[in-house]
Amino acid sequence: MKFKSIFITGALVLSCGSLQALDAPASPRGELLHPQQSFTELAGRQVWNYQNELLGRIKFITADMENARLVEVVIASGGFFGVGGKLTSAPPSAFKLDASKQVMRLDVSKARFDAAPKYQSSDIAHYSQPERVAAVHRYYGQNPWFNENAQAGKNAQNLRLGHVARTDDILGMSIKSPTGKYLGQVSSLMMDVPTGRINQVVDETQSMAGDGRFIIQPRALRYNAAHDGFVLNESFAALKGEPHMKWVDQSREYFQEESSGGRKMQAGNVSKATR
């Protein structure tokens, strides 16, 4: 799929290039950095502090899909040609978008960043450990959006951290109806890192009934029992009534919502076009 191949390219660029100390943020890369991005546009993006010290590059992002929340941004730093480096996580709400330099900013000194808890990518179980995730948020002076001791509830302060997965692993997961009918697969996640939210899921379908990309809300999805796919309480006919998304240009700054008269909107305001 197109979206998946873009991610793979970004991952290869990150793994084949060593992180070097620079005096100032590099010139903008090809894809424009705007408030709402897909993960494929963020992979490999440089992260700098406000003292113009390079902290690393975005390696991957984890998300709690059923709460439509980003959980951690994992930064790769050090090493040589992607080998022997370290992974450090930070809460999405600690980041700021620097549109002029096309980088992400993290308000932390280099020394404090180097002393931050490291991310254990080999221990998948710790992705969803609320106490650990909450401690990472507080290390950077951010309040966790969930209550690690609360039962799940409607109040935002009582949200319980759900199943957490890497966004690059979520890409390509199947979406099926409750009866098991195939409704497509996740081809892109539209994310707003500074607010820590997943705004839209793009469901790409390929079938005899037609193909397309449909914008659906992340909270409409729930994981299956194996956490390797999603269930959507809609039929394929109902899915075809969802907004149909099409990128207008290569920068992905604009999209058309074809089922609503082909309106053209900036990607940062895409959530206003959905139900």
What does this structure look like?
The protein has helices spanning 2-16, 39-42, 110-114, 130-139, 167-170, 236-239; strands at residues 37-38, 46-48, 54-64, 69-77, 86-90, 95-98, 103-106, 165-166, 174-176, 182-192, 197-207, 210-216, 221-223, 229-232, 245-247, 254-257, 263-266. By secondary structure, the chain is of the alpha+beta class. The model is unreliable at 1-22, 27-39 and 256-275 (pLDDT under 50). Helix content is 15%, strand content 33%. 36% of the residues are buried. The strands form three sheets. Strands 1, 9, 10, 11, 12, 13 and 14 form a seven-stranded mixed sheet that branches. Strands 2, 3, 4, 5, 6, 7 and 8 form a seven-stranded mixed sheet that branches. The chain has two domains: 2-139, PRC-barrel domain (SH3 type barrels, Roll); 167-273, SH3 type barrels (Roll).
